[in-house]
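re: ur question from earlier - yeah i can do the single chain one, its not a big deal. heres the input i used so u can compare w yours
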Amino acid sequence: MLLEDYLDFLSPDDIRIKGHRIGIQDAIKYYLSGYSPEEILEELPSLNLEKIYAIITYYLANRTQIDNYMFRLEQSQEQHYQEWLKKEPSPVVAKLRSLFVIEF
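and the output i got, formated as C-alpha coordinates:
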Protein backbone atom coordinates (compact mmCIF):
# COMPACT_ATOMS: atom_id res chain seq x y z
CA MET A 1 0.00 0.00 0.00
CA LEU A 2 1.25 3.50 -0.83
CA LEU A 3 1.40 6.22 1.80
CA GLU A 4 -0.92 8.35 -0.34
CA ASP A 5 -3.56 5.62 0.02
CA TYR A 6 -4.02 6.77 3.62
CA LEU A 7 -4.79 10.35 2.62
CA ASP A 8 -7.51 12.28 0.81
CA PHE A 9 -6.14 15.21 -1.18
CA LEU A 10 -9.27 17.37 -1.33
CA SER A 11 -7.38 20.46 -2.50
CA PRO A 12 -3.83 21.78 -2.34
CA ASP A 13 -4.66 23.21 1.09
CA ASP A 14 -6.86 20.43 2.43
CA ILE A 15 -5.27 17.04 3.04
CA ARG A 16 -7.29 14.74 5.26
CA ILE A 17 -6.87 11.29 6.67
CA LYS A 18 -8.87 8.87 4.55
CA GLY A 19 -12.16 8.01 6.20
CA HIS A 20 -11.93 10.94 8.64
CA ARG A 21 -12.56 14.65 8.75
CA ILE A 22 -9.25 15.06 10.54
CA GLY A 23 -6.58 16.94 8.63
CA ILE A 24 -3.05 15.58 8.59
CA GLN A 25 -1.90 18.78 10.27
CA ASP A 26 -3.66 17.70 13.46
CA ALA A 27 -1.59 14.54 13.84
CA ILE A 28 1.58 16.24 12.60
CA LYS A 29 1.27 19.06 15.16
CA TYR A 30 1.23 16.47 17.94
CA TYR A 31 4.21 14.70 16.37
CA LEU A 32 6.17 17.95 16.10
CA SER A 33 5.32 18.69 19.76
CA GLY A 34 7.07 15.48 20.77
CA TYR A 35 4.11 13.14 21.11
CA SER A 36 4.76 9.46 20.37
CA PRO A 37 2.41 7.68 17.96
CA GLU A 38 0.73 6.05 20.95
CA GLU A 39 0.19 9.45 22.59
CA ILE A 40 -1.19 10.83 19.32
CA LEU A 41 -3.64 7.93 19.32
CA GLU A 42 -4.80 8.98 22.80
CA GLU A 43 -5.48 12.50 21.48
CA LEU A 44 -7.05 11.33 18.20
CA PRO A 45 -8.72 8.02 19.17
CA SER A 46 -10.71 7.69 15.95
CA LEU A 47 -7.43 6.92 14.16
CA ASN A 48 -5.32 3.81 14.52
CA LEU A 49 -1.58 3.35 14.86
CA GLU A 50 -1.23 2.26 11.23
CA LYS A 51 -2.68 5.56 10.01
CA ILE A 52 -0.63 7.59 12.48
CA TYR A 53 2.59 5.91 11.37
CA ALA A 54 1.60 6.46 7.73
CA ILE A 55 1.03 10.18 8.38
CA ILE A 56 4.37 10.54 10.16
CA THR A 57 6.16 8.64 7.39
CA TYR A 58 4.46 10.76 4.73
CA TYR A 59 5.47 13.90 6.61
CA LEU A 60 9.10 12.81 6.93
CA ALA A 61 9.23 11.88 3.24
CA ASN A 62 7.68 15.21 2.18
CA ARG A 63 8.79 17.49 4.99
CA THR A 64 9.35 20.69 2.98
CA GLN A 65 6.02 20.44 1.14
CA ILE A 66 4.07 19.61 4.31
CA ASP A 67 5.79 22.35 6.31
CA ASN A 68 4.76 24.79 3.57
CA TYR A 69 1.24 23.33 3.57
CA MET A 70 0.96 23.80 7.33
CA PHE A 71 2.34 27.35 7.10
CA ARG A 72 -0.30 28.24 4.48
CA LEU A 73 -3.01 26.76 6.71
CA GLU A 74 -1.84 28.80 9.70
CA GLN A 75 -1.75 31.96 7.58
CA SER A 76 -5.25 31.30 6.26
CA GLN A 77 -6.62 30.58 9.72
CA GLU A 78 -5.04 33.77 11.09
CA GLN A 79 -6.48 35.80 8.21
CA HIS A 80 -9.97 34.38 8.82
CA TYR A 81 -9.64 35.10 12.54
CA GLN A 82 -8.60 38.71 11.92
CA GLU A 83 -11.54 39.16 9.53
CA TRP A 84 -13.87 37.69 12.15
CA LEU A 85 -12.57 40.12 14.77
CA LYS A 86 -13.39 43.06 12.51
CA LYS A 87 -16.97 41.96 11.88
CA GLU A 88 -19.75 43.75 13.67
CA PRO A 89 -21.69 41.41 15.94
CA SER A 90 -25.25 40.57 15.06
CA PRO A 91 -27.92 42.65 16.83
CA VAL A 92 -28.72 39.72 19.12
CA VAL A 93 -25.08 39.27 20.16
CA ALA A 94 -24.68 43.03 20.68
CA LYS A 95 -27.78 43.08 22.90
CA LEU A 96 -26.57 40.12 24.95
CA ARG A 97 -23.17 41.73 25.42
CA SER A 98 -24.80 44.96 26.57
CA LEU A 99 -26.87 43.05 29.14
CA PHE A 100 -23.83 41.33 30.65
CA VAL A 101 -21.35 44.19 30.77
CA ILE A 102 -19.70 44.30 34.16
CA GLU A 103 -18.39 47.65 35.26
CA PHE A 104 -15.70 47.97 37.89
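The chain is about 60% helix and 10% strand. not sure if urs matches, ping me
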